[in-house]
Specification:
By secondary structure, the chain is of the alpha/beta class. The protein contains six helices and six strands. It has a single domain, classed as Rossmann fold (3-Layer(aba) Sandwich), CATH 3.40.50.620. The structure holds adenosine-5'-diphosphate (ADP).
Length: 167
Amino acid sequence: MANKKGRAILFPGSFDPPTLGHLDLIRRAAGFFDKVYVGVLINPYKKSLFSVEERVILLNRIAKDIPQVEVVSFGGLLIDACRSLGVSHILRGLRDAGDFEAEVKVAQGLKVLDPALETVFLGTDARYAFLSSSMVREVASGGGDVTAFLPDGLAAEVAAKYASREQ
Ligand code: ADP
């Protein structure tokens, strides 16, 4: 389905925090979709480092040079978010066999719920194959430097977040 802005895809995730792996996927998807919605999932049951609003701000900042990108947040069902945005493609990244196993099952389930939905998988860039938001949080929570894992400026945000928690 094309929305009014052309071929559009939704990249849903937690992005807590967004990493260089996420940014690489967003940039690559923008190479072949007219519109890339980056959707921060509102999950009241999952404790997060950054609030949903903060993650939207961070994603807007790191993707500001990619005109196709629009950052949104959504709660509830992914298929409902796709319908309201007018997209029929979902973007997910694959780092390893674990991602593959989990993501293909989700994509198959989504297809049962809405046969028009296609999940597009992009394999990770080898530089980021090991990289996850949870790993970044783990390193940063121990006081480690996460600059090499994050888009410019975000390491300071992450460090500040942990510092404010300690007070
Ligand atoms: P979720 O909680 O939905 O998995 P994440 O923010 O952890 O949210 O990840 C969102 C998407 O980004 C997932 O499809 C994940 O596989 C992908 N992703 C995360 N890190 C990387 C990376 N380093 N390389 C490629 N894809 C990644």
